[in-house]
Amino acid sequence: MLIFSCANEWHVGDKNPPAGYFNDTFLKAAYVLGFLKLVDTNPPVPPELQEYKAIEYKNIDGKSLKLDLYYKKQITGKAPLLIFIHGGGWRKGKREDYLKYLLDFAGRGYVTATISYRLLPQSTFPDAVEDVICAVRWLRKNADSYHIDPDKIAVIGGSAGGYLASMIGYAADVPQFNIGCETGKTSGRVQAVINLYGPTNLTTEYARTHTSTNNFLGMKYADNPALFATASPLSYISADDPPTLIFHGTLDDLVPVSQSDSLHSKLNSFGITSEYHRLEGWPHTMDLAEPINEYCQFTMTQFLEKYIPLNK
User: Which of 36, 127, 157, 177 is most buried, judged by most C-beta within 10 A?
Assistant: First the structure.
């Protein structure tokens, strides 16, 4: 039974990340047998937190795009803002998907937000990219209303949300992605990026032939190869981009770990801070597992304290 229980726990102070599994079969067996616990994805909102639900940040073609926001009721002054972007293959997902992260980090003193964006099949690239950049700009413009420090904003996402977080981090100033934002000249730039197993190069053989990518771009690679590069975060990396934290599991069969290998390498080539946690024996959406979620939250907190620290 040790082979199933090896990743059951992780504690702050442990030198290594949670031990993973030999393959998906062992991983699934550990879950079925009760050795691998999953996080509560719908925890109650603690009474000490202020919650704002369904705030409209953008209305386009009659569609209202909303965000939720959390912070301590006893907050004084301004705090860094963490914007969480849900995944779902650009087709599904909801703001509440990251509720555990939202509440945990708000409880530590951050302002946290989660945003909706346009999805398939009604919308294709670059609609979602435009939306998430507009959300950053809206939150920065309205910073004073929600105790936000406008100079300390991080974007965090998993899978498709990690892709969008990376697009914000490296392409927020690209004119074609700043459309439909009623925020004047407010900047969409952020000070930190956290990408959990998100794709960043849509031109690879695997990515460009994947159904989700073709649907997101509204065409196949042969129809317009240049568009696949235009839609790739790697295409926009430059020397002034923000520090980036990356998590990716080697058992990921949806977004290959090679995507994050390439991201880390390119960031390093431009001299950009990149902290990469390549986790052996873990799959896509690995942070649903308690030990990985605890490890990610601890690592994220350390990273954020270095680059957008809480105001004392």
Answer: 157
pTM of the model: 0.95
Q: Which of 217, 244, 218 is nearest to 162 (CA)?
A: 244
Class of the CATH domain delimited by 46-307: alpha beta
pLDDT by residue (tens digit) across 153-188? Answer: 999 999 999 999 999 999 999 999 999 998 899 999
DSSP class per residue in the chain: -HHHHTTS---TT-SSPPP--SSHHHHHHHHHTT-SPBP-SSPPPPTTEEEEEEEEEEEETTEEEEEEEEEETT--S-EEEEEEE--STTT---GGGGHHHHHHHHHTT-EEEEE----TTT--TTHHHHHHHHHHHHHHHTGGGGTEEEEEEEEEEETHHHHHHHHHHHHTT-GGG--S--STT-----SEEEEES----TTSHHHHTSHHHHHHHTS-GGG-HHHHHHT-GGGG--TTPPPEEEEEETT-SSS-THHHHHHHHHHHHTT--EEEEEETT--TTGGGBHHHHHHHHHHHHHHHHHHSPPP-
Share of the chain above pLDDT 90, in %: 87
Query: β-strand 111-115 against 49-60: which pairing, if any?
Result: unpaired
Cα–Cα distance for residue pair 113/312, rounded to 1 Å: 21
Evaluate if residue 255 carries a pLDDT over 70: yes
Each domain of the chain, given as residue ranges in start order, spans 46-307
Q: How far apart are CA 180 and CA 170, in angstroms?
A: 19
